[in-house]
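Reopening this ticket.

The earlier resolution said the output was attached, but the attachment link was broken on my side. Pasting everything inline this time so it's all in one place.
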Amino acid sequence: MARPEVSAWVALGANLGDPVVAVRAALNALDHTPGLRLLRASSLYRSAPHEAQGPDFINAVAEIATTRSAPDLLSALQAIEADAGRARPYPNAPRTLDLDLLFYGEGRIHSPTLTVPHPRWRERAFVLVPLAEVAPERLPAGWQAAVAGQPIERLSATR
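Inline output:
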C-alpha cells in the first residue's frame, strides 16, 4: 500500500559557487527525486549571513508533496546537498547548498537527527519573508516584524 502524500516545506540557501544556479538546481532536484513533487516555490532572495559567515546567501522556500517519511525526506535532502558539493567543515560554514526541513505536514518530531518544525525558523528573515510570499497563512501577524532588522532583498522568480 502506497504511503499518502504529505505536504512539507523546505528552506533553500547557498552562498558559495554560483548560489542562484545551486538553488534553482535544488528546486529541480526536489521535483525529480523519487517520492518528492515540487508544488510551489518562492522568489529568490538575497540575504546577509545570519549566524553564519561568508558572502551573501541566495534563499528560497519551497512546498513539496512527499510520500517519504520525515527521516527519509531528510536523507533525500542531504543527498541533494551532497550532490551540490556540500561540505560541513564547521558549524555555520559557508555552503554550496543548504536544505532545511521546516515542516512535515502538521507533525512534530524531536529526535537526535531531526526536529520539526525547524527549531529556528521563526528567527530568520530568509525563511519568514519567502514563506510569507507563498504561504502567508502559515505566519501569524507580526512575526515578520521580529526579523525586520535582518537585511533581505527579493531578486526574481525561481523559474
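Reporter confirms the inline version is readable. Residues 19-32 form the longest helix (14 residues). The longest strand covers residues 57-66.
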